[in-house]
Amino acid sequence: MTEQNAKYILQSIHNMGGKIEIINAKKNIYRINYKNKSFLISRKFVIRDSIASTGELALNKDVTQQLLILKNINVPKSFFIYDQSNLSKLKTALKKIKPPYVIKPLRGSNSKGVFTNIKNYKEAIKQINNKQTNQKINILIQEQLFGTEYRVLILGNKAIGVLAMIPPYIIGNSKNTVIELITKKQLHTKKKTKLDNHLYSLLKKQNESVNSIPKNNKKIFIKNNSSIAEGGETIDFTKKIHQSFTDICVQAVHTIELSLGGVDIICEDITKDINEQSYGILEVNGKPDIYIHYIPTKGESQDVTQKIIKYITKKI
What we know:
27% of the residues lie in helices and 26% in strands. The chain has 9 helices and 14 strands. The strands form 4 sheets. A 5-stranded antiparallel β-sheet has the order 12-9-8-13-14. Strand 2 and strand 3 form a beta hairpin. The longest helix is centred in the N-terminal third of the chain and has 14 residues, at 3-16. The protein is globular.
């Protein structure tokens, strides 16, 4: 399992009085023992709805989106690009999608390979060509939604962890330039924000540049999408989520035949009724990271592993 997930899973199992055995460290195979019951995990928890579930649906953003649409669940308008044949239809397809656009791989996680604020067809083609290595392109381009992004961890019919995902930002001090503030903020982050056109465009929208000196206390976002690795923040909303949002996220997870899933959703305010605002589900993660719920930047830590272990052992 990933190092960050492993740390909290091991600690939670120890606190519960359970044990974990290393079966194959190289392949990340572990056996969890709790109250005379045991089961295997590999890297992350995966809980399917039934024995017939494939467990692979969440890996494919296009299939996931199509299934959600069939259930009348709101998702961003999208166009899927698999190869050169439907790339030729992109210009026509974009006329049905309101800009700006987001480009992302059909398979992937943790915001890897995601590019936001694509303004037009020309920019989209340029970005696609940068990603293209062969005839199979396998990406999607979709309408960019605005609001607050949340990660809702669903287990069965409950939301056991809810986080607002805040993109990385800097705070002006009337002394340092934007690039100096970014460098200072990211001294100890796992990733550094690239000085590229995406950053320049985002700063320009906020009337700043890499060399400008922001006014004292001015908040300036340096990414459009959440990225904890680059200094993004999280705020716990587990006890505040409105039941209507829990219901739609539960439905989304079960739609792709899972009992455990991390739903990425954008809305105005997850504490208020879903019927009073717009929303869109970006994707459903079938192998969600659990460590993020233990270390929110603000708010209460959630021991989601304990709930997951108890759920599994009741089923076996």
